[in-house]
Amino acid sequence: MVKNYFVFVIYLIEALLPLYCALDETLKVQESTFIQWANFLFEDNPVKDVKDLVDPKFLTYVTQLITGTTIPKTNNRQIDISIAIATIFPDEDEKAHQLNLPELMDGVPKTVLQLTWQIMHAFWRKFAPEGARDRKLAEAIKEWCLEATANYEEVAISDFTSSWRDGFAFNALLHSYDHSLVDMEAIREMRGDERLENAFQIAYTKFNVPKLLHAKDLHSEHLDLKSVVCYLMTLYLSLVGQSSQTTSKSTPSTSTSVQSLPTTSTATTVVSPAPQPPPPHPAQQIVEQHSVDMAPPASPTQPSSYDNEQRSRKSSSSSQKSGKGGKKRKSEEQVREYEQCLEQVLTWLLEAEEELGMMGSVSEKDVETVKQQFKQHEQFMLSLTHSQDSVGRVLHRGQQLSQKVDEDLCQSIIGQLLIVNQRWEAVRALAMQRQNLLQHHLNRLQHQQLDTISSWLIEMEKTMATNSTISDNAEEVAKQIDEHAALQERIDSQQNAIQKLSTFVAVVDECEQTSEREYEDLEKLLQMVGQRWMSICEWAEMRAKQLDGLVELLKEYEDTHEHLNHWLNEREEDLGLLRSAKHLETDEELIQQMGIMHRIEALLEQEHNQFVRLSQISTTLYDRYQTTNGLAATRVKQALETVTQRWDNIVTRLEEYSQMLVRTGKANLTDLERPESTTDEETERRLPSVQFAEPPVAASTNEEDDDERDPVKSFSKHVKALEAEIEPLYTWTTSFVVSENPEDMRKMIQVCQKRLREIKSEEVRVNAVQLELEDLHDLGLDAQKLGAANDAFDRFMKKWSRIVTKISESLNSLSKKNEEIEENMDIAQKIGEWLQSANGVIGELEKISRQEREKRLASMREQLTVQQRNIEFLRRNHHDSDQLAELEAQMTEIVERMDSLKNEQRKLSHENFVKKSESDLLKTEATVGDVIGLKTNLDTCERLLKQLEERRQNAGDDLAVQNELADLEAAVAYKQDMLADTIRKTEKVNSKTEEALNVAENLRHMLEDLKKESGELTELQERFKDLRERLSKESKVKNEAVGLLDEVCAQLAKSKNERKEQLIEETRNRTSELERRWKEMEAELDDHLSCLKKEQRKRIESALRQQTTLVNELREGLKASEAAADAEELSEHLDVSSY
Question: Which residue ranges does the record assign to the Calponin-homology (CH) domain (predicted)?
Fold first, then answer.
């Protein structure tokens, strides 16, 4: 029958890696358990391997055991299996009907074990207690186990695998049934395998439960839950049956019934009888227990169950006789129904064949076309699945009908059934072949798509890592915008490829036990790929927002900043035009100075908007660069602070100059006010306002008058007062030291800036003192007084210069260190973010395929090298040792995890290399006669030796790997020597064969030349004899070659060479060719010699005939002569007598 497949439509896919090895081991455990359970049902253990589980003998017995029906046997094994399945599972919706019948006939282990598992469910529904038989087998068994072990703290049952490995649960089940069976205190002291063997042995000896499982099965990682459920079902039925028999024996006059699932409390109250000898057959014991469970025991006055059964059979027989006529009347209707169904099935098969033929060839290049073909074929497979029931019903009806009709019609029906089955199998085989081909091409093409996507993602992630920083230069930002636009086009173009993967088709066999686990792994992989794609898209979107309008913003910032700097330079030059009060002798000069002040104040108000705009732009740029370029953000912030300080300095200078004019009496507040400016305007514009002091008191003391009269004393007094005011600043310069602690950096900058504002507030007074000194020089005072004034001013200026220099140097040093600290902090933050991201990536690497993992690890190695250089830079320059230590610890952990993955990868690569090398070595068979194969195998050995040499160099000091590689190298070298020796033998055989052929060819030429010669017959005959004798002598070479070729054939016949049949045939052909040539020459020489002998004989016979003729003529002449002589003598005699 056709397999059912689920088609999952997913957005992205990673190559599914089927775990065939684990599945095979799991099937082995399951196979062993099911075979033992099957032999538990039989008396003579006929089930030897998995194929016997679908043997008609076993299925017939199981059918009779479960249903009580004896199914007829036919000569068709497929029909017998179909009848058994239909009888055991009358409901056509049962999973057993969906199994592939040809696979059952072929004994495919997985399919056979699935059928056996369904038979166990039927066995459970037949022999389980009445309350439990309607429930699912696994659920009922689990609930029983939970109830029975509820009072045991050591037992926690959550599944049918890991919860049973330690053996506590098995012993607890037996102890809950009968406390005397198991000593739980002793069980706690045992090892896990001992606890398991103890429970299995008690169950076997006390309840005749076979040892379907072993301790090694429970400790195996390939433990199969179906095997554990099978054993627990057998144990449960035995315990329940034992309890039922005990109860029925103790109360023979009362009808008994067994609870659906025995609880712990009821199990402890049952008194176990003394151990009885095992019954003759375990399965019969379960059947008898079932009869005890389901029916009350017979009383003496009631007929026995056996008598009832006999009467039931007799009545059934009589009813069959009475209904015989009715069956005959219905046979014709059944034949008609069968023929109608047969016609429908044949019509459907014809349509299916035509549809399958019209599907066309499978595309090998276009993945979308293959997807469409796969979906189309999937619909066709679903139609096969829906129609297989109709085919099965026709086969089933035909089989049943063939047993009820006469022999001729029976043979006709069986022939029709065979035709239907053959056509169905042909359609199914072609459909499965096409589906496998579609799946192969689809997986290949989609994996190619996925590899392309993965490579693109890796490339994009590298691009993201290199383009993380946004420049603060407008031209460079314009280039970055163009680059990002091109990058966005690449992302948009890749979006189309991603959308094509949105209809990825993954075919998963629902019968595979690992499919759910594989699908979970697939989901995790897809989430990771999806997260990578979303990260790229989010990064591109975020970067586009960061770059959007940045060029215009930077240009406006540069223009505004340059304009303000130029404007501030001009205003600072204007401030240099302000003269001290001593030099303002006329009203015109005073008005001019006040005009300069008013003009500067007006310009301040006009430029206020530019200053506000610069602040806004700087804030916007700072926000953008804060996450993408910390150094640029710091520069923008410092530039704004510098402009602000210069602005504040101008305002402070104006304020101080105004105060000086008021203090010296040169002007009053009303003179300093600008008529066009109002307080509201100043407040609204938030200008740095000039604070004017109240007018000084007009009265003055006598001391002040004296000072006014002595300008040197007055100057000295002003210098001392100013020196006293800056003394705290001077004291501060001697104690202030720039700290290396970054936490104090900002505080120290604030302190220095505060000191800078303080000296700027005193700068006006310093300028005034300087101007006052210049005035003293203009007064024409004597040298002594001027010297005293100069000395006082020099002492003050030394302190003042010390203060200014200290503040300037401190600010420069702090600013530089602050930039370095912020740069280091930014680097440390990025390293931390990368380490955190790397941890997550390494965690995901353990779940992806080996090839993808290698690519990602190589990419991470490159990034790791960069980050290690950054760590080294921080080690030299970073202030925060704790943070650096933490980063180094995290980096060390990352390196260790990556090395661990690399070692695992290297170990896996080494294991794969060893397995592949051993596999290649096993394939290199040294077979005599296979010259091409031998040379190929010799090349393989040389390649393996080179690879082994490289591996040994890369293995380093790993002794285990070195030893393993050395052993493998020795095996390869040994194989290489064998191959070289075999090649020499083969070349010897070929050389000897070539020599024999050359001898035959030379003899052939000699024969042809001899045939052309003419001469005396005797001479020719002698030369042919000589050539024949030479051929006989040279046959030794031929015989040696034939012997060697025969040895090659014998060795080839014993070898496992894939081409041995072809090589044997070629070798035999060479032998035959050599033999043929030799025999042809022998025959031809013999023919020529025979012809020469015949010719010689002819010539001799001709000569004899001539001689004979001559002799005869001579004889006749002699006779005539004698006759003449006699006549003459007679005549003479007559003449004499007449006288």
Answer: 135-240
Residue 129 included in any domain: yes
Enumerate residues 6+ apart whose C-beta is below 8 A from 796.
719, 722, 723, 726, 769
- Print the SS3 string covering 204-225: HHHHCCCCCCCHHHHHCCCCCH
Q: What is the pLDDT of residues 470-488, one digit of tens each?
A: 888 888 888 888 888 888 8
Q: Look at residue 23 and tell me whether its pLDDT is greater than 70.
A: no
pTM: 0.35
Same domain, 531 and 559: no
- φ, ψ of residue 301 to 5 degrees: the values are -85, -10
Name residue, tokens 């001479």: 1019
Does one domain contain both 504 and 561?
Answer: no
Query: Which whole number is the average pLDDT over 820-849?
Result: 78
pLDDT band at 145 (very low <50, low <70, confident <90, very high): very high
Strand, helix or coil for residue 6: strand
**Cβ-contact 1030, 1004 below 8 angstroms:** no
Report the distance separating Cα 132 and Cα 126, nearest Å: 10
Identity of the residue numbered 973: A
Contact residues for 205 (Cβ-Cβ < 8 A; gap 6+): 275
**Cα angle 178-141-230, degrees, rounded to a multiple of 5:** 95
CATH number at residue 396: 1.20.58.60
Q: pLDDT band at 203, cuts 50/70/90?
A: very high
Q: Are 413 and 481 in a shared domain? A: yes
d(CA 146, CA 167): 15
Residue 946 domain-assigned (yes or no): yes
Q: Two tokens at 130?
A: 């009445």
DSSP secondary structure code for residue 512 in this structure:
-
Q: Which H or E element spans position 751?
A: helix 745-778
Give the integer Cα–Cα distance in Å for 282 and 361. Answer: 57
Q: What is the extent of the structural domain holding 485?
A: 360-546
Query: Which tokens in the block code for residue 658?
Result: 């105004």
Q: Are residues 527 and 656 in the same domain?
A: no
**Collapsed DSSP state (helix, strand, coil) of residue 507:** strand
Q: What is the DSSP code string of 57-86?
A: HHHHHHHHHHH--PPP--S-HHHHHHHHHH
pLDDT beyond 80 at 4: no
Spatial distance between the Cα atoms of 512 and 510, rounded to a whole number of angstroms: 5
Instruction: State the distance between the two ends of the chain, measured CA to CA, in whole angstroms.
Output: 140
Domain termination residue (choose one: 755, 788, 818): 818
Asked if 661 and 673 count as a contact pair (C-beta separation under 8 A), the reply is no
Residues contacting 69, CB < 8 A, separation 6+: 63, 87
Do 966 and 1044 sit in the same domain of this protein? yes
3-state SS class at 5 = strand
Residue type, 899: D
Same domain assignment for residues 974 and 1062: yes
pLDDT in tens, 1103-1114: 888 889 988 888
More confident residue, 652 or 673: 652
Q: Is the Cβ–Cβ distance between 276 and 288 less than 8 Å?
A: no
Domain count, the chain: 5
Question: Which helix (H) or strand (E) segment is 414 a member of?
Answer: helix 407-466
Supply the DSSP string of 417-450, one letter for each residue. HHHHHHHHHHHHHHHHHHHHHHHHHHHHHHHHHH
Phi, psi for residue 213 in degrees, rounded to 5 = -120, 160
Burial 513-536 (b: 16+ CB within 10 A, else e): bbbeebbebbeebbebbeebbeeb
Are the CB atoms for 15 and 522 separated by under 8 Å? no
Q: State pLDDT tens for residues 947-979.
A: 888 877 777 777 777 787 788 888 888 877 887
Same domain, 530 and 391: yes
